[in-house]
Specification:
By secondary structure, the chain is mainly β. The protein has a single domain, classed as Transthyretin/hydroxyisourate hydrolase domain (Immunoglobulin-like), CATH 2.60.40.180. It has a four-stranded mixed sheet with strand order 2-1-7-8, with no helix packed on it.
Length: about 120
């Protein structure tokens, strides 16, 4: 069954990014529709499990927005104003609604990486 999930790891502190705020948006025809906002749990994941389940998945373009600077400031990291990385916006496509899409983020105050996980 298809679904969408995410997982965020704090590479500066070597732990899950517990407490980071995230938004999921759908991008259609120049419009942005917010589908969900949530705060990551102690494991750096959404408490409710999948962000989109098989019934909610629609082929198209999506965006995950991770509030990186706010997370690191809350952990006591001194960041410049403006921060080097404020929010990370990951735009991605869902082509096969029956597939699993896992979008991990590895992030620090100065860099980030992502990939399609399993």
């Amino acid at each position: 069954m298809g679904h969408l999930s995410t997982h965020v790891l704090d590479t500066m502190n070597g732990c899950p990014a517990a407490g980071m705020s995230v938004r999921l948006e759908r991008l259609t025809g120049g419009r942005t529709e917010m589908l969900k906002s949530f705060v990551l749990n102690a494991d750096g994941r959404n408490d409710g499990g999948a962000l989109l389940d098989a019934q909610a998945m629609v082929a198209g373009r999506y965006r995950l927005v991770f509030s990186v600077a706010a997370y690191f400031r809350a952990r006591g990291v001194a960041l410049p104003d403006p921060p080097f990385i404020d929010e990370v916006q990951l735009d991605f496509g869902i082509a096969d609604v029956a597939a699993r899409y896992h979008v991990p983020l590895l992030v620090g105050p100065w860099s980030y990486a992502t990939y399609r996980g399993s």
